[in-house]
């Protein structure tokens, strides 16, 4: 399976142009049984990211570095990121990650879609977020999980703070049945 992923990634490297969407993303969410911090930045088609999670049974820390490529699928621009990943949750584990994302502008705002698969525990993350401009409001549906049996879906609302790149966030985790609050910075 890893060889297949490697060949697919090599094909994308050879066939797609380097994406140029430099920016930073920071997020922190705090809930009664689960807290998460995310940080990533991209420069000249290379992304680096970290994710810290604390949950009832423990926690984990993950890192990744990836190349970004711009593709066109069905006439829509899609950014593909892929590269190695590392997770520490008592043991150090290495893997590979692939991410596809798209932002589509609309006359009322925009829609952002992202999907991610990581070979460590075959974890996944997917989100669709609709944002309304100039009000700076957004609504997101998020699904996460892995092959260990973990699965969670969340609804998240956010509001831009005074026209800045910062947003306040509030959400509800459907399986955990808990509310969380947070903040995010997005300069992409």
Automatic annotation (TrEMBL):
Keyword Signal applies: yes
Keyword Signal among record annotations: yes
Annotated signal sequence range: 1-21
Record key words, sorted: Signal
Protein name: Porin
Organism per entry: Limimaricola litoreus
Species lineage: Bacteria, Pseudomonadati, Pseudomonadota, Alphaproteobacteria, Rhodobacterales
